[in-house]
Amino acid sequence: MSITVLGIESSCDDTSAAVITDGVIRSNIIANQDVHRKYGGVVPELASRAHQQNIVPVVELAIREAGISKKEVSAISFTRGPGLMGSLLVGTSFAKGFALARNIPLIEVNHLKAHILVHFIREKDVEPQFPVFPFICLLVSGGHTQLVLVKDHLDMEVLGQTIDDAAGEAFDKCAKIMGIPYPGGPLIDRYSKDGDPLAFRFPEPSVAGFDFSFSGLKTSFLYFLREKRKEDSGFIENNLNDLCASLQKTIVGILVDNLIRVSKQTGITEVALAGGVAANSALRLAVKDLEDRRGWRVFLPKPAYTTDNAAMIAITGYYKYLKSEFSSQDIVPEARFSFNT
Ligand code: KG4
Ligand code: ZN
Q: Ligand 1: which residue has its CA nearest to atom 14?
């Protein structure tokens, strides 16, 4: 009997629903919330209101696009955390109601682990190329930056993480300093294509073990620009592409250096990227390059699976279904959901 999981993602500012049958993707609908753009970041109250409006139409569309009826859904999985409490509540409440109404299992999912499991989503009629366990995943998003040892679909261990800002936050905060609208990461990526990555040098932090730090880079970037603008008020506009390319090179360098260190120490050469920043073209190129230079096998997620999406929640739900890891109706969202739960 085939297993069809409906996944729901509502942890931040994207409302998403996806359908996966036996690990094969059938639909993945994402409604972005433009309302935050003018505020330069996500406004939690506005995010939860938008989720309320989006959730039903997004789910209906996901089911229609999958070509199934609600009766064919075997289980519903949802993001329990981490994320914004008001946003999580919308997805959690919807999933509980759906599970109750249809009398099917309810499955909680950790958003961070789900980002990693996109590597196990199958496409119809395509021979899958999955990473072999154990592998290392560099999980880089707007809220988290972690090096994860993935021992099995549901067995993961954090080997290193950021001690302050996440990599995506570093992109977004430095973009804001340059007057680039939120989220600045994708725009820095775009402007960098016409810039010289060696035009400016910014300091790389020295952090113990496999941990990361990005707040020092942000501060030195701010002071650097402050000084330069004293001499030339148009410094940012006149050097935007070079500034973006140099900043991007520094952030990617910090990430890749640590990835190499962890691979050397563990002896693991099976390496994957995940999370919103995994869409960054320089990071993808730098890690892919290590296939030849270091004999790694590198797994880059499809761009559509890098930023927040419900396909990752559905695939995690599928693997939890196989192990009968179900949740009860008294479950509540966790804004600060630990990776180890
Ligand atoms: O995983 P995600 O969608 O949301 C969180 O769970 O945080 O990641 C969003 C982050 C934002 O910081 C955004 O600027 C960054 O991913 N991002 C990028 C790129 N695309 C998205 N950063 C650099 N280059 C990109 N191409
Ligand atoms: Zn995310």
A: 185
